[in-house]
Design a protein that fits this description.
Keywords: Membrane, Transmembrane, Transmembrane helix. By secondary structure, this protein is mainly α. Helices cover 75% and strands 0% of the residues. It contains three helices and no strands. The longest helix has 52 residues.
Length: 119
Amino acid sequence: MTTTLIVLTVVDIALLVAGLAVYLFWVGTLLARIATNLEDCAETVRRINTHAEAIVPGVSHINRTGAVVAGALPLLYGMAEDIVTGATFTPPTEARPAARPASGTRRSRLHDAVGFAPY
């Protein structure tokens, strides 16, 4: 009886070790794939930084220009308020006629074919 328990214990431990080995192999494969993707990402980031170095002086100029425009906005807003205050719009009260095409109306022969007279 004890030899059977010893053999089953050894088999159980061997299966546990084998399961852990398979699991660790699978995790190692996933980590290797992640490492490869991270290397590609790092190269892409280096390339973006290289391209951005040429843009940085222009961005500071754009920021300075934006600050000037932002400083002028209150003045422009006040001028726009003065313009709007003096302008009043009164909508027309009479009903407008139906719109007609500039080329006039076309006569369709389809109406004649079915006996319809629109005029």
